[in-house]
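Researcher: Sequence recovery benchmark, item below. Answer with residues only.
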């Protein structure tokens, strides 16, 4: 039995650092991390190298986690300072691959188009884990969690995951109630399958 951690939306590895403590991740774990924003991905490389030097076994990809293998444009957010002036930083939270990206909440997007590879996460999980492994998934993918988890359920992949930590972004969509209900259904289906979904913030 292997211990495997999938970090979907790794940003600058802040979440990974947290899960090292939460799950006691060490050099015996197999880890995969995915960051869609190509600017953030480049900035994360020094931290990635540091983690490798510490003995962690991590494969780090500039891929968007989705429900199919394809390519997609990334909506890269430009960070605001506390006075709401644009700072020019591209590492603010909220970069996404949604066809109708959220507005408001001080979201400002780079006008440039950044096309990145997407992965069918359900397929990737099946290729890199088994139901006998101990698998933890952290998913903070800015609204794309809905189609990704729908596909996991469609493919009956819940048995491959022990714990799925998710930050849900139903507020990004016009029909908040629809997505809130979908979130509750996800939790129930995973529970019935003997897995569980936990909130991640």
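Model:
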């Amino acid at each position: 039995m292997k211990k495997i951690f999938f970090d979907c939306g790794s940003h600058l590895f802040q979440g990974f650092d947290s899960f090292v403590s939460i799950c006691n991740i060490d050099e015996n774990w197999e880890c995969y991390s995915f960051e869609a924003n190509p600017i953030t991905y480049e900035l994360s490389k020094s931290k990635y190298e540091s983690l490798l030097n510490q003995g962690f076994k991590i494969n780090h990809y500039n891929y968007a986690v989705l429900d199919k293998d394809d390519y997609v444009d990334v909506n890269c957010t430009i960070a605001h300072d506390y006075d709401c002036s644009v700072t020019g930083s591209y590492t603010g939270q909220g970069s996404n691959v949604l066809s109708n990206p959220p507005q408001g909440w001080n979201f400002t997007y780079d006008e440039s188009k950044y096309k990145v590879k997407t992965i069918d996460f359900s397929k990737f999980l099946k290729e890199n884990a088994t139901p006998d492994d101990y698998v933890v998934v952290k998913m903070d993918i800015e609204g794309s969690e809905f189609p990704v988890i729908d596909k996991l359920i469609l493919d009956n992949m819940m048995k491959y995951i022990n714990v799925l930590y998710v930050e849900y972004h139903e507020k990004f969509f016009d029909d908040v109630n629809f997505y809130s209900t979908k979130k509750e259904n996800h939790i129930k289906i995973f529970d019935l399958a003997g897995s569980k979904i936990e909130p991640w913030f």
